[in-house]
Amino acid sequence: MKTILKILGTIILLLVVYGIIAILTFSKDYHFEKSVTINAPVEKVWQHVGSLKAYNTWDPFSKKVKDIKITYSGEGDKIGDSYHWSGKKSEGEQAVIETVPNQKLVTKLHFIKPFNGNAKGTFILTPEGSATKVTWMIDNELNPVMKIMKPMMDMNMKKMFDKGLGDLKKLSEQ
């Protein structure tokens, strides 16, 4: 019994030490990005990236929300256009803040549930011959608790971005 308590105590101590190190050393600025090359011209890829409505057809994050309801304001492809989502344990808003047709879409994300926060999402399309390189980025500021969870966030973002970019590639190459 003492051995089990010592092991549990050691694990708890290591977790506390990790938490303190993460809070003190991890940057509050969070950036994650992934790219994929799609065998389609920029104009065709833009059809699936250049508006919030098109984005929501392949977005892995909204597909993960149970019982999601999406309400749009505008067509989703002009500055100020937005949508609000709500579902089981998730709610938020996303709005277009910058757009350069066939090149760039930047959005502001406001998360309401399960936690309050803001982030910026960016898509950059770069022609590469007859193909298109799509770079998807997210940037936000981490509070101390989120700093502790950064390695898990990186793993989740990689999984979700890989899924989303894979679905975008399939759609665009049809």
List keywords for this structure.
single chain; 174 residues; alpha+beta; Alpha-D-Glucose-1,6-Bisphosphate, Chain A, domain 4; 7-stranded antiparallel beta sheet; 7 strands; elongated
Structure description:
The chain is α+β, with helices and mostly antiparallel strands and about 170 residues long. It has a single domain (about 30-174), classed as 2-Layer Sandwich (Alpha-D-Glucose-1,6-Bisphosphate, Chain A, domain 4). Helix content is about 40%, strand content about 35%. The protein has helices spanning about 1-25, 40-50, 50-55, 60-65, 145-150, 150-170; strands at about 30-40, 70-75, 80-85, 90-100, 105-115, 115-130, 130-140. The protein has a seven-stranded antiparallel beta sheet. A hairpin with a 2-residue loop joins β6 and β7. The termini are far apart. The mean pLDDT is about 90.
Note the topology:
Blueprint (H helix, E strand, L loop, with lengths): L1 H24 L3 E10 L3 H8 L2 H4 L4 H5 L4 E5 L8 E6 L2 E11 L3 E10 L3 E12 L2 E11 L2 H5 L1 H23 L2
Antiparallel strand pairs: 1-7, 2-3, 3-4, 4-5, 5-6, 6-7
Helix pairs in contact: 2-6
